[in-house]
Amino acid sequence: AEEALEGANAAPLSGHVVFLLYLNDKTFLDAGGAVARLVQAAMDRGIAIAPVHEQEPSCGGVPFRNFFQQTPQVLQQPPYKLFDTVAVPLYPAPEHRTVSLRLILTSMGAVPCDAGPLQRRWQLLRRRIAVARLVRRRPAEPQQIVQP
Asked: How would residue 49 be classed by pLDDT, with cut points 50, 70 and 90?
């Protein structure tokens, strides 16, 4: 995954690409900070982040406030602002987990199979507009002003 996102040899992206970020008690606590580097590289390439918040304690579910301590500051501040995107809660009960999984798929751009062709196109267009807005929100590189 690192090779696909980082460095000069990163392949050009095509189609709809989404980075699924599974948030639990171990996210961003890996040795060497590989997860943080991957998230930053994905955001640098304009890849949408789909955060998923695990709720089951036996699977590492912790209160969301923990992620503000675990996550590197660079990802919490502009231009990244990782937590501006609402994380989909992944609930443990089977009936709730099914709903959570559907919400995750929707956040990644999936459309219901029973959606008509026009509705599918409309949803894809709305998704592209949202991504374009995210890209526009990023500030340009700072320029030095030379005063006479």
From this structure: very high
